[in-house]
Amino acid sequence: TQLLEQSPQFLSIQEGENLTVYCNSSSVFSSLQWYRQEPGEGPVLLVTVVTGGEVKKLKRLTFQFGDARKDSSLHITAAQPGDTGLYLCAGVGFNKFYFGSGTKLNVKP
Amino acid sequence: KAGVTQTPRYLIKTRGQQVTLSCSPISGHRSVSWYQQTPGQGLQFLFEYFSETQRNKGNFPGRFSGRQFSNSRSEMNVSTLELGDSALYLCASSLRLAGDEQYFGPGTRLTVT
User: B68-106, pLDDT tens digit by residue?
Assistant: First the structure.
């Protein structure tokens, strides 16, 4: 059983559409990170959120940390083919990282 | 600044053999963590080393072991390989303990036949 559940598992959309990926847990984390991983490469850190209710924006990506620090969401506006990849959330607790199962996003031109 | 490097990138071994994977962290980073990534289980934490000491360990059998050297470089070893050990093994480095932001290497793709 994964400590962090991500949904959806797969997402295939057209360029220009908006999407939201969710990362949920029953556990509280001291911080939460989002990564993107491309085939054959390691995950690349996108953002770290620390404070409950925190919202961070990275160009067309908006990240939110839940008030109770148990869940997070990633919203992408006007998705582009370059956004294609595996999106992973990771919660930090007791000096360990707990990764979600990932959301595989495919943006079609 | 050079990123995290892992060697080798690809490896094919047979059941029962052992394997050693290497990771060089970003210069100045003292923490190295290892993960196993498979399609079925996702990314799972193996262990973390800081200043040559194992600080955290995941739920893997004793066949999986690691060490860290004084220059922060790390190796992980898997003995008596099983088919289920086929995976992408990722190493991540961070400045201090793994609560910090971590930076991943490209991984070593291990195939056990």
Answer: 999 999 999 999 999 999 999 999 999 887 567 889 999
Q: Which of B97, B99, B103 is closest, CB to CB, to A45?
A: B103
Partners of B12 in beta bridges:
B111
The per-residue pLDDT for range B70-80, each reduced to its tens digit, is: 999 999 999 99
Low-confidence ranges of chain A (pLDDT < 70): 1-2
Query: pLDDT at position A40, please?
Result: 83
One-letter amino acid for residue A86 of the chain: L
Q: What is the pLDDT of residue B2?
A: 75
Nearest to A101 among B4, B42, B103 (CB): B42
Instruction: Please state the separation of Cα A77 from the chain's center in Å.
Output: 14
Look at residue B85 and give its three-state secondary structure: helix
Token duo for residue B112: 């056990």
CA distance B18 to chain A (A): 23
The answer to whether the beta carbons of residues B31 and B17 sit under 8 Å apart is no
For chain A, strand residue ranges (E) read 5-7, 10-14, 19-24, 31-37, 44-49, 55-58, 61-65, 71-76, 85-93, 96-99, 103-108
- Alpha carbon of residue B59 to chain centroid: 14
Give the pairing type, strands A103-108 and A10-14.
Answer: parallel
